Structures are given as C-alpha cells and as structure tokens.
Amino acid sequence: MTTADGTVQGTTQIFGSQPRNRAFNVVLLAEGFTAAEQPAFDTQAAAFVTAFVATAPFDELRSVINVFRVNVTSTDSGADDPAAAGGTGATARTYFDATFGGNGIRRLLLANATTALQVAAAQVPEFTVVLVVVNSTVYGGSGGSIGTYSLAGGATEIAIHEMGHTAFGLADEYPYYAGGAETGHDHHPAGEPSQPNVTLDTARATLKWGWAVRATTALPTQSNGSCAQVDSSASPVPAGTVGTFEGAHYYHCGAYRPEFDCKMRNLSVPFCAVCRAVIWNRLGPLATLTARDRTPITVVARFPEHLDVFAVGSDGRTVTDWWDRSTGWSGWSQLSGGVASPGGAGSPVTAVHRHAGHLDVFTVGTDNRIWSAWWDRSGGWSGWFRVGSLLARPGSTVTVVSRYDDQLDLFTTASDGRIMSTWWTAGGGWAQDWFHVSGGYAANGSTVTAVARYPHHLDVFAVGTDNRVWSTWWDERWGWAGWFQVGGQLARPDSAVTVVARHPDQLDLFTTAPNGAIVSTWWNSRGGWGTWFQVSGGVAAPGSPVTAIVRYTNHMDLFVIGTDNRVYSTWWHDTTGWAGWFTVSGGVGKAGGQVAAITRTAEHIDLFTVGTDAKVWSTWWDGSTGWAGWFQVAVS
Amino acid sequence: MSEQTAAPGRPGAVRMIFEYEGDTIRLVSTQRVDVAVTGFDLPAETATPPGHYVQLRSADGVSLAQVAVRNGPTASAEVFPETAGEPIVRTDLERPRGAFTVVVPAAAGARQIAVVEVAHLPSTEGLAPQAGVATTSTDLATFDLDATEDGAS
To answer: Predicted ipTM?
Structure first.
C-alpha cells in the first residue's frame, strides 16, 4: 500500500480565477478512488466547493479562493478499516495509504501526510491547504498538516474545522481534552496561548479581541463555577455576543473563548466573529484594496527600510499594509476591526510613530467619536478605544502631532465646527476630555493641521467659516494664543492648510484658493509672515489638498491631483526657487483625491494615491534613478 | 492609474516539507515557489509567541527569515463526533509521526534551515497573562541548505 498502488492523473481547477501566487489555494486529493471511480471523486470535490464557499466568511472572500482537484487513482477502492478498531477488517491498496482506526479509534482516519504534501507541491506548488478525500461512507476524518475526510454525511465540516488550524492558526475552543471526564484539565496552565481565539486574559484593556467586545458586555461573560467539570450551562447572553467565556483550549477553567459557540468548538456551527476576523486578515491581504475614493492615505516610516500605510476601504474598514525591504508588501489587513466615518471625504486613519517600535493611530468612527489604537513591537495591535467624549464632524480628520516621544497632541473639528484638541502624556495618560482651542471654528470640510517646530511649541492652522486662513499657536510658557488671519488669503471652504517646518524658525504654508490656485506663504522668525503667491501657476482639482515634504532644510517637494486628475509635482530649492509642475509617471488619481508622500531618506520619496480604479497605487523617486512607474499596493 | 508598470521585484519564497517521527525531523524537500507571504504569516518584529517556527539562517547562525508552523510536530490527534452535538476530542498518539510544510520568504545569504520550538519558560507560572512573555527557544533540527535539493538563497 504505497504510491505504487496508483497514479496521479492530473489537476483541474474547479473554483476561482485568482492568480495562484496571490490566492488561498485549496487542493483536494483523491484517495481510494479507482480509475473507474474518478467521476465520483469529481462529484465529491464539487460538493466540497459548494459547502466551503457557502461558509462565512469564505462566502465573502471567494475572489481570492482557488480550489484544485487532483485526480489520483488507487488500485483498490476505499481505505483500510482495521477490525481491532471496530472496523470491517478490510484492507485496500491505495495511493496515500489511508486507514481508519488510528490509535484504535475507528473514526480517526489517517493518511500518509508526506506523500500528500509532495503530490500537492508537485501539482500546485502554490497550495495553501491540502485535503485528502477518502472514498468511503464510513464516518471519519482527522486534522494536522493535511486534513482527511470521508464521504459520510457532514464530513466536510471536519475539513473546514481543520482549515481553522492549518491555514489560520486558530486554537480548539472546546473545554476538554477527551470529552470532559479526563483528569488534569481542570485549570489551564500559566502562559498566554499564542492563538488569536483563546486567552487567559479577561481584562477589557488588554483582551486580544477587545475590539469586538461591546462596552456593555460583562467580562468575564461566563464563568465555570465548578472547575472539576465542563460547564454545561446555557449562554448567559444572546448568540453572537463577543466576550470571554470560560472553558477553552482543552481546559475547564482559566482559558476563555470569544463566543459561546464557534466552529472551532463544535462542528456544524458558524465561526465566531473573532475567528471570522482572523480568516479575513489571512485572505484579505491577498486581494487588492478597493479604497474610499477621496479618503486620505497616511504613510509612516518608523525606520528607513520600512513603511506603514493606512487607508480606508470602500466599505469603511480601517486597513493597513506594510512594506519592509526584507519581505516586501504584507498585504492589506483590517486594523483591529475598525470602521471609519463616511462623512465628507471620509475620515482617514492618521498615524504617528513616537519611536521606531510604536505606532499610534486615530480615526473618527461611524458613531462620529474619536477612536485610537496602537501597535507596539512587542505586543502587536491593540483594540480600538475611544478618546474622550467628543462628537466630531462626520468624516473629520484627527490630526496628531508628537512633540516628543512621550507626548501626543490631537486636533479635530466638533460636530458644530469648533476646533478641538486633547493630549496624552506617558506620565499622565489622556487628558480629561477635549477642549475648544481659543474659540476657533473651521469651515465645513476643512482639516485642522498642526506642526511642532520645537518640543514646547505648536502652530495650528485651519480655514475658518469666513473661508480665510487662520492660525493660532501654543507655547509651554504662555499657553494658547488667539486665532489670527494669515494674510487675508481666501481658500476653498474644504481646503486643508498644509504646513511644514523646514527648520525650527521657519514655516511654509500651502492651500488652494477659491479658483483652485495652489498658493503658499511663509513665516520665519526674522521677517515674520510673507505674502501669499501662486506656486508656479499650479491649480488643484476641487477638494484635492496639497501635500508637502521636506527632504533638506533648503528643499521642498509638493504633490497634488491636478484639474485633469493627474498627479503633479513641483519642488523648491533655495538657490533655484520653484520649478514648474510636472506629471509623476503619468499617474491619474481620483478627482478630489490626495497624494500621500514620505521621504524615508533624503534622496528617496514614496507616493501613494487612490487611482481611477479605486485601488491604492504607489510610485517612488530615488535620487539615482528618478521616478519609477506606478504599481498597485498589495501583497508582494 | 493610466500607466502601470510591474511592482518592485518580488522577494520570492521557498516551500519546505518536513517529516517527523518521534523526536526526529527530516527535511524532505525544498522548492522555490512564487507565493506571496502575507503579513499574517510573518512574525511580530521582536516578540515570538510560543509555537513551532522555521527559520532561515546565515552561515553564522543569524536568523534572516522566520515563519510560524501552523501544524508542527504533535503528539495528539483530533477525533470528530459522528453525531452532531457530541464533543470533538483529542487522543494522544502512540507513535507521533507526520509531516508539515511552510513557505518562507527567500533570504539572500541563507545557509541553514532550523526548526525551532518556542515555549513559555516555567518561571512564567503565576504571572498575569500579559506578563507571560518569557519564552525559551530550542532548535529541534537544523539542516545545511547547500545540502538540500535546491537552495533557497
């Protein structure tokens, strides 16, 4: 009973059309099907596909799923069924040497995993999951690096449960090892499990699926009153409630699962919300992101060989993708289950790195409250939490400035247009709540911008309700100043005032005039404010903000979507002044969109924008090679 | 976008198949594959949670790339109920054996493959869950990449 007992006939793709190198590729191997029985295997494979892609969340992820059928003939039909394990005593000469009765248990159906993996690798080198379909109506299956299942009713459930382990790293959520009568499984040992769907932690602030728990849900949600046995009581909360339910990961007590029930606990029930999110974040990065048309993208370089990009999907999901020189692009994944406010251009995810091992991100949620999450090198992403009680304007941007490592200052607009701020310090945590900044109001759609020229100084800008450019500042010694007009410049009501500080005693401002003209002014400590002027005759598309970066103290680069929706750039150098506008590699963005730019090193620029196809595109400029072509940001 | 060019060069990846029986792990094959390794499969930058990992290492033993093994060597198997509502259970295997596969981003300069087990240190007993990060790393097997069928570098 070896590979001499059959032949590999060939492979047929029976579902999906995603390129194999960016797909979740499921391979079904025929076992115990004779040459004459291959049509029966074809039928079983089709039935698997029907069941699989109807299972949430795979039903919503069909676009990145491929299923392949590998027809393998065996000399005999079926599988070994040892009498010692209660079977018929039948033996069958089959390619993968499948046998019921593993460990003396008839329904433990095993196959030669090495052979199965080798055949899959030869037929579909890009495979993700291998399932061996055994030609027997005796109930059976098993998991591990390959899944096996028979043709008995309901056995495909085994395959989908096993995918939870093999492809997604999910833990078993059942609260016993051998059915509940075993000893030594009363209390889970110390040490947080690494799997995303079981925990020893019931603290709301640190719970790894805290993002999915409503504030009104008690934690722990269900406790086991007698750890000597499995808790058999009913759920105390409605089905679908995410919390912490005691009894998981093979132990009666001490370990918790996210919902009362889940496919990782019982067959024939749906995956819980946390497991569905994990599956989303495994398969989602294989797809290209469809982004909200005009929602700004944020990009952060924690160190020169790494980029973190934040965007919002067309469905409002807050998403992130990162690039590292050593591994390429990771693919878009949802950031802690967040969904951003759809008002106006849509609330972006803004981000700051206080140091190389930490990120803080902010957005306005669908409840129009301010939400934040953080990423830390040692612990990964936190859940989202609310910052204060402010009700923000729908679609507002939360501007964040880190004056030094242990300080954050936030700015945004309230629902009535008030310009609001709050702060966080490492020593004191978040301020009690948001405060109104010197009585200022912003025009509807205008973003409040800010810059820290010194650790003890902030300059803040907005377009006021009179459509003029206004500013205020804060200094540690004197507190907040009153708002003042910057040169009387009229701006488009939905403009942002982009500001950069090339050095601590210099500010450069950019915005768009009512006719779209891209205008600039400056301030320096020697001469005060300059006059507004149009930058090289440039005109921006309605709603498109001007992006500015500083590569040297005497050099700035600007980017904007022009009136023909092309991506334009110009630069200023102290010795040559402003250059003419030019199109960046022929790129075309969404009308009213934004171009995100970052300089990881002085001689390198990375750009991101939403293209006409609603995908996120990127290009780069390097001092030695010039501008590259645009490419879609996805997994690489 | 009105113009499109190819994305920057894909780093490439290597599929490895391992076989184990008892404490012995054998590298069965390495195969260069064009597969995107997503962030989901890549480990956190510093913290490595308990589990099995496959590392690509340089000649002097420095880890160049690492991925988690979702179904590594195990001494038990899941047994599924025939009747809905009955429990899924696990059973200890009399003779643990099997195989597993990983896809690792290709790393220039890789000369060694290691199968590593990361486990909680016993000293984490009694610590709060979030404090239980002390781990120990053990090489279960190492292989000279130059000796395998096709190199990964």
So the answer is: 0.86
